[in-house]
Amino acid sequence: MSSGVGILGLGKAVPEKVLTNQDLEAMVDTSDEWITTRTGIKQRHIADPDTAASDLGYAAAVEALANAHADAGHIDLIIAATTTPDMPFPATACLIQDRLKARHAAAFDVAAACSGFMYGVEVGKAMMAAGYQKVLVIGVDVISRLIDYKDRSTCVLFGDGAGAAVLGAVRPGYGILASEIGADGSGAMLLHVPAGGSRIPPQIQSIEAGQHYVKMCGREVYKFAVQIICESTERVLEKAGVSVDQIRWFVPHQANVRIIQAAAERLKLDADRVYVNVDRYGNTSAASVPIALAELVESRKLSEGDLILMVGFGAGLTWGSAVLRWGGFEL
Ligand code: ACO
User: Does the residue 330 lie in any domain?
Assistant: First the structure.
């Protein structure tokens, strides 16, 4: 049996500044009660104007490398999952590669919105099968830059952050047992930012019309999310030959606690096996799954051999899930 692809170490970084529901009450026509009951969110972290995606991504990467006992010089690929890169090019992964002095690493970005980390892990796993040894996957978004803080339907939902994971070889039977990524572009306009790309480049008119902000059909995205979480995770569980009862931790993308609860109920996962931190961070887009995983490890809630079910979903529409057996580090 050949070795598996596992996560050797994780890191996370969030900006210091906290934006609470009470702060938002003073900014738009909303209430702590509405936000809490509809989303489960109490606060989110917001980057200051000097902080870009590569800053948060770098900080998370440094922590992940330390936790994985890995040297940046031994990383051969860096994948940054982000839809809020520092700039259109170069890739944010290249900016992070330079700061890490990861001189032997190829580096590129993937854009799959909130599914970005799951996409990054899938690509990293495939690249390891092609011969790469250690892959750093970073999920990072400074999504506050795309939010209209006058639009109550979106501004209460999102926060900034980064999470990172070092992928490497683990003992057979450990690591990623099964995974998938998917997309349905017919839902592209349900969650999108109209301007700022080649269709509508940044210009005074587009900025005045607010076209550089996130536009979302909340209800449709909600329905898609619950459905795809269930369908995709059921497929990877079957592929892995694992039953839902064997899952120790369900780590879903943290968009809305009601989405998480509805999906967990359908999957028959009781609350003590569902990781939730959306109350403290809001939806951090590509950073949400790796931040949750990093917290699980930090809080020592993971033991050798525990099975984790992860799932991401988001704009595209996109999704990705994986079943991972934690541990098996000493080869
Ligand atoms: N405060 C007070 N009232 C509000 C707020 C707010 N912040 N936002 C909306 N409302 C109002 C609406 O105007 C509406 O009022 P109306 O009935 O008078 O028209 C009412 O509340 C109900 O609005 P709905 O949109 O029906 O509320 P819903 O229960 O669907 O919750 C929510 C909205 C939280 C956005 C939900 O639909 C949701 O979570 N959707 C998924 C969003 C998501 O996860 N997006 C990210 C995906 S991942 C990625 O890739 C980015």
Answer: no
pTM above 0.85, yes or no: yes
Q: Which of 37, 25, 95 is nearest to 61 (CA)?
A: 95
Is 199 touching ligand 1 by the criterion CB < 6 Å? no
Ligand 1 centre to CA of 128 (Å) is 40
Among 139, 169, 199, where does a domain finish? 169
State which of 20, 143, 219, 226 you would mutate to test the pocket of ligand 1, scoring each by most atoms of that ligand within 8 A of its C-beta: 219
Does any ligand 1 atom lie closer than 6 A to the CB of residue 46? no
The boundaries of the domain holding residue 269 are: 177-325
Domain shared by 101 and 183, yes or no: no
Each residue's pLDDT tens digit, 47-93: 999 999 999 999 999 999 999 999 999 999 999 999 999 999 999 99
Provide φ and ψ at 28, rounded to 5°: -135, 170
CATH at 203: 3.40.47.10
**Among the three residues 145, 169, 193, which one is the final residue of a domain in this structure?**
169
Q: What was the pLDDT predicted at 330? A: 78
pLDDT digits over 139-165, tens only?
999 999 999 999 999 999 999 999 999
58 neighbors 99 (Cβ within 8 angstroms): yes
What is the C-alpha separation between 279 and 53, in angstroms, rounded?
Answer: 22
